[in-house]
Amino acid sequence: MLTLQNLTKTFGDKTAVHKVSFTVDRPMMIGIIGRSGAGKSTVLRMLNRLSDASSGSILFEGKDITRLKGAERRSWQSRCAMIFQQFNLVPRMDVVSNVLHGTLNRRSTLATMFNLYPDGDIHKAIEILDRLGIAEQAPKRAEALSGGQQQRVAIARALMQDPAIILADEPIASLDPMNAQIVMQALRRIHEEDGRMVIANLHTLDTARRYCDRVIGMRDGRVVFDGAPEMLTTDAAREIYGADTDFSEAATSTEIETLDRPEVHSPEVFAEAYA
Ligand SMILES: Nc1ncnc2c1ncn2[C@@H]1O[C@H](COP(=O)(O)OP(=O)(O)OP(=O)(O)O)[C@@H](O)[C@H]1O
């Protein structure tokens, strides 16, 4: 359903992404890992059409995304929602209005100017917040929430768009381990329950192993690993991170020891994490 073919991005002399190709034939949760500057964000930005590819193509359900313009490009951007490390909420605006911003693409300018939202959208926003365990935060200003809660608001805003794909660019890089776990569980659950594809750029190996069905490793703009988490051996990690034999996985870890991968998928543990 999603195919990247020789996707390339250059900035002047610098090739940030070099002929990246992979196919995703069913909705899955994919982690893209690699050191800083490997090209992970640039790949996501091209996928969402925030940035244009220099060459190569992206096909989704047979359609060439790289060629979309105007309204078609905006429509793609709402099918392919993006979440950022810094949440990108409007800090002084209440939580529910931030979530309702996810409907901007389909609202008239006048309705947007006067903050007029249909009742159905407001109910939907609250339902989504409830699903993410933060409905009681709905009237508060976004800036009053913890980082983990703010990232869940950003996920709720993305869900308002009813996207086929959620792209998450370092979604947990600003969070402490407990909040990082809650946010990763939320993304995993959205993938499993809704059948949405999730592609997340991640700094740490253990997070990719624990939550993802497939891991893509990038180094210097190229894909150097593409496989199941079980295939991600220390040697494969060394290749991705360009490290020598001193390489220690602990250096890329945000581990907190309480959860194993099988438990992560259990709704009970998910609910408990929110309690
Ligand atoms: N707008 C830009 N102009 C010039 N160079 C850029 C631009 N955006 C990215 N780059 C360069 O492209 C390369 C890949 O950057 P990118 O942000 O995609 O890497 P990354 O793997 O996401 O790293 P990080 O984890 O630090 O965000 C880097 O060398 C970066 O400096």
TrEMBL record:
UniProt cross-references to SUPFAM superfamilies, sorted A to Z: P-loop containing nucleoside triphosphate hydrolases (SSF52540)
Pfam entry (one): ABC_tran
One GO cellular component term: membrane
PROSITE patterns according to UniProt: ABC_TRANSPORTER_1, ABC_TRANSPORTER_2
Keyword Methyltransferase belongs to the record: no
UniProt keyword ATP-binding, yes or no: yes
Source organism, top-level taxon: Bacteria
Keywords attached to this entry: ATP-binding, Cell membrane, Membrane, Nucleotide-binding, Plasmid, Translocase, Transport
A molecular function GO annotation: ATP binding
Domain ABC transporter: 2-245
PANTHER family: AMINO ACID IMPORT ATP-BINDING PROTEIN, PHOSPHONATES IMPORT ATP-BINDING PROTEIN PHNC
NCBIfam families: ABC_phnC (TIGR02315)
Name of the protein: Phosphonate ABC transporter ATP-binding protein
Lineage, uppermost ranks: Bacteria, Pseudomonadati, Pseudomonadota, Alphaproteobacteria, Rhodobacterales
Gene: phnC
